Structure formats: C-alpha cells, structure tokens
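Exercise 3.2. Students should predict the tertiary structure of the chain below and write it as structure tokens, then compare their answer with the key that follows.

Predict this chain's 3D structure.
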Amino acid sequence: SKPLYVDLPDGSSVRLQRGSRLSYAASLARDAQRVVLLSGEAFFEVKKNPQRPFLVYANELVTKVLGTSFTIQAFARDPSVRVSVRTG
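Answer key:
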C-alpha cells in the first residue's frame, strides 16, 4: 500500500509506486550500460556516470540518461508513457 524504496547496485535509487514492477540484472553495478525494466510508475534518482548510460525500458519507450532524477509512468493497460524530469 506504500511506495517501495529500492537502492540499486550502481548507487542509484528508485521509489516504486504500489502495483508497479522493476527488474534489473544483479550485475547492474558492473555492466557497460545500466538497464532496468519498469511496468507501472517510479521515481528515479540516477547516480551520474557519463561513461555508463542508465536505460529504463518501459512499454515501447527507452529512456536513456547519464545522471538525473525523473518519474516514469508506464502502465501495461495504457499505450502512452509519461516521463517527467525533475532535475538534470
């Protein structure tokens, strides 16, 4: 019933809203690209790393950032995806 706070292995953090899902590889901290899969809504605070892009796959959209904070709303039943940048 409350948001779930997730600290990712690369130092980034995510506030995952109720009913949402986030998937990522255990090797996120070591991979060339930092990749996560989102279904639902989440607020991301991405640790800056220009050499290793952070990619969020949500429905048919891929959001690529180097270090910023933003919200993504991507629900399976809604074909549109919304990205709202907070900082960066």
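Discussion points: The two ends are 30 Å apart (CA to CA). The CA atoms of residues 43 and 71 lie 4 Å apart.
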